[in-house]
From TrEMBL:
Protein name, entry field: FAD dependent oxidoreductase
InterPro entries in the record: FAD-dep_OxRdtase, FAD/NAD-bd_sf
Keywords for this protein: Oxidoreductase
Organism of provenance: Stanieria cyanosphaera (strain ATCC 29371 / PCC 7437)
Cellular component GO terms, alphabetical: cytoplasm
Gene3D superfamilies assigned: D-Amino Acid Oxidase, subunit A, domain 2, FAD/NAD(P)-binding domain
């Protein structure tokens, strides 16, 4: 019987990065993923690296570490993550005051540049000038999220790691000690198990009566095949509603709604945006909704029409181009930048999940976490671990 040092549950960008970093520390690691063909939030991510978005000393430090790591990650992993520097264009609605919107970004590490209508359309000619009052421009990084996750996985395998494609059914253990996991086909044993299962983390832990402040939204978006025109930037609304949506999670928990697995929407928003990858394909969206049942089914045609109509107000060309509708769970937390660390009153089980800005924060925090469990001091992980508990 093989006993691993670490089992990592989930092979999105979070679990893949963490498995790689743990293997670098000479741990024997098993990475478990439920889908042979990836179907998670990493696959449908915009790929943006918001390294400008730090609002305090901790997040500014992690943003800086994250972008510096990404600039060298392709070389380290020996695979192309498609990293590039790319402008982020935040569109300001016609009815909004551009100066007031600019003031809303005053707390960030980088202050955006306010561009009037003419300058906005010179920067991004595909914008609809009739729909906006101007834009905010910010420096931004961009990667191909799934290719980055795959690069981490291949580097992990070269270090001697093991990847198995089996869905985890439950954690193995009792009396506040986790000793491994049970999948649909096997039982695997480990000294430590870390859950990086995105929006499924909460329900998986709940089966063992483990409760952490980890939540999820249902994201709905459209991806397209390569098109013959080019966006010069990532497009997002300056007034994003997703963060206000996520802020309601604690109120919902106080009402015990998260554990009822209800199909009824509690709240839903649409942030109209688009990004184009290097192969010319687009990601368009997105609707974000809080529904406590992770397996709820959606009216695909209705959601797709709604996304196209809203995004087409800003980018008229998107309304008619072919594309495929997708749905995924997006994990988040409300009390910190992520849920990281060992679970209070339990042994052998950790959480590494719910990142507010995963593509920037995951690489540096995966490295710090692996160093920490290998015995090296790290005040940032200690702080986040306390937040986890």
């Amino acid at each position: 019987m093989t006993i691993y040092d670490w089992i990592v549950i989930g092979a999105g960008i979070t679990g893949s990065a963490l498995a790689y970093e743990l293997s670098k520390q000479k741990f024997k690691v098993l990475l478990l993923e439920k889908d042979v063909v990836p179907n998670n939030a990493t696959v449908y991510s915009y790929g943006g690296l918001a390294y400008w978005s730090g609002t305090n000393q901790l997040t500014r430090q992690l943003c800086q570490e994250g972008i510096e790591l990404h600039r060298n990650l392709s070389e380290e992993l020996e695979a192309d993550t498609e990293f590039r520097e790319l402008d982020l264009v935040l569109t300001i609605d016609k009815e909004d005051d551009p100066i007031q919107i600019l003031q809303n970004y005053s707390q960030f590490a980088v202050t955006p540049e306010l561009l009037d209508l003419q300058a906005a359309c010179e920067l991004e000619p595909l914008l609809n000038p009739k729909a906006i009052a101007g834009i905010l421009k910010l420096p931004h990084g961009h990667i191909h999220p799934q290719k980055t996750a795959q690069a981490y996985q291949q580097a992990f395998l070269r270090l001697g790691g093991t990847i198995v494609y089996e869905p985890v059914i439950k954690l193995l253990g009792s009396e506040h000690l986790i000793q491994g996991v049970v999948t649909s086909q096997n039982t695997y044993y480990a000294a430590n198990t870390v859950v990086c299962a995105g929006g499924l983390t909460r329900s998986l832990l709940k089966q063992s009566d483990i409760v952490v402040k980890n939540y999820f939204t249902h994201a709905q978006l459209i991806t397209t095949p390569p098109v013959d025109f080019k966006l010069r930037s990532i497009i997002m609304p300056a007034r994003q509603q997703r963060f206000a949506l996520e802020a309601t999670a604690s109120e919902i928990e106080q009402q015990s709604l998260w554990d009822r697995l209800d199909d009824q929407p509690i709240q839903s928003i649409l942030d109209a945006g688009a990004v184009q990858f290097l192969d010319g394909s687009l990601c368009i969206g997105q609707i974000s909704g809080i529904i406590t049942n992770p397996n709820v089914k959606f009216d695909q045609s209705l959601a797709e029409v709604k996304i196209r109509q809203q995004v087409a107000k800003i980018l008229p060309f998107v309304e008619k181009i072919p594309g495929n509708f997708h749905h995924c769970l997006v994990a988040f937390t409300t009390n910190s930048i992520a849920v990281i660390g060992n679970v209070k009153n339990w042994s052998g089980v950790y959480v590494f999940n719910g990142f507010t800005s995963p593509l920037v924060f995951v690489p540096p925090l995966a490295r710090r976490f692996a160093n920490w469990v290998a015995g090296k001091k790290d005040q940032i992980i200690v702080q986040l671990n306390n937040d986890c508990q």
